[in-house]
């Protein structure tokens, strides 16, 4: 028994320098891999920054950047892990073969993850939503801050951040695609001169067009679209650029209410 223990101790002592060397080499691999990862991120950011400076701001370009960064991180983590394990003496080829053999079993356990990644790729390829767009997805509304392989990050108006798995995105309502229509509903109390109210609103909208240089035509007073026991509702519409829609709606509402009050008409 003593001989076996002595033999085991001697074998351990003989292998100790080699083991320590392998551990040190693995740590060096991890350190170098970390530096390469940081350097790669910096290079990618500079490439996309240079592209934006040459071609202007492009939300699709921002989306490509976030996806590229996400993919780069995954590939680098995988490569660093395999290299470190190989340095420690682990048979990486056997691990890869085992992973391939057990892939079918893992697929059943990772269906949601695979679904999220595939959905993320299709979101990018189709261009249905990009970084910077204001969208409603999975019941949440906000501006897209990041589109990764697995998740999409939204920031709501109140500052809340929603991280939504791409696999849960079924329908996308994009509110920043090409143009928007500013829609303002103004109520006119019953007992007022409805025809006069329409004329007052039309005059006010002509002045609105003169005050806002980002619209090319007068806001259109569509007329009365509904009524209830207390008032009739008049709708005003105007097409404008995406980023000016809310500003235009506030301006239309203010000028409409001011014009009605000056004319003695109760909204």
Structure notes:
With 267 residues, this protein is of the alpha+beta class. The protein has 3 domains: 2-89, no CATH class; 111-174, SH3 type barrels; 180-262, Alpha-Beta Plaits. It is 57% helix and 20% strand. It contains 7 helices and 8 strands; from the N terminus they run H-H-H-H-H-E-E-E-E-E-E-H-E-E-H. The strands form 2 sheets. The protein has a 5-stranded antiparallel β-sheet. Strands 6-8-7 form a 3-stranded antiparallel β-sheet, with helices on one face. Strand 2 and strand 3 (151-155) form a beta hairpin. Helix 6 packs across helix 7 (245-262). The protein is elongated, with a radius of gyration of 31 Å.
Write the layout of secondary structure elements.
Elements: H1 2-55, H2 59-87, H3 92-101, H4 103-109, H5 111-126, E1 134-137, E2 140-147, E3 151-155, E4 161-165, E5 172-174, E6 180-189, H6 194-211, E7 220-227, E8 231-240, H7 245-262
Structure characteristics:
single chain; Alpha-Beta Plaits; five-stranded antiparallel sheet; 8 strands; 267 residues; elongated; 20% strand; alpha+beta; SH3 type barrels; 57% helix
């Amino acid at each position: 028994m003593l001989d076996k223990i002595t033999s085991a101790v001697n074998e351990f002592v003989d292998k100790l320098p080699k083991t320590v060397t392998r551990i040190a080499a693995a740590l060096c691999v991890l350190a170098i891999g970390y530096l390469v990862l940081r350097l790669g991120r910096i290079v990618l950011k500079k490439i996309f920054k240079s592209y934006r400076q040459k071609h202007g701001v492009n939300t699709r370009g921002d989306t490509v950047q976030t996806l590229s960064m996400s993919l780069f991180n995954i590939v680098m983590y995988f490569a660093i892990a395999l290299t470190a394990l190989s340095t420690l003496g682990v048979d990486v080829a056997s691990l890869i073969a085992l992973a391939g053999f057990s892939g079918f079993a893992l697929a059943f356990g990772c269906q949601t993850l695979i679904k999220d990644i595939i959905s993320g790729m299709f979101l990018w390829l189709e261009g249905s939503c990009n970084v910077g767009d204001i969208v409603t997805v999975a019941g949440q509304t906000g501006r897209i801050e990041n589109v990764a392989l697995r998740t999409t990050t939204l920031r709501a108006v109140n500052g809340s951040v929603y991280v939504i798995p791409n696999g849960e995105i079924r329908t996308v309502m994009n509110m920043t695609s090409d143009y928007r229509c500013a829609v303002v509903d103004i109520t006119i109390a019953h007992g007022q001169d409805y025809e006069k109210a329409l004329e007052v609103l039309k005059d006010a909208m002509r002045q609105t067009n003169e005050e806002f240089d980002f619209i090319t035509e007068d806001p259109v007073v569509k007329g009365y679209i509904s009524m209830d026991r207390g008032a009739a509702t008049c709708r005003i519409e105007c097409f404008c650029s995406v980023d000016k829609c809310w500003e235009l709606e506030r301006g239309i509402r203010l000028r409409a209410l001011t014009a009605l009050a000056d004319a003695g008409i109760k909204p």
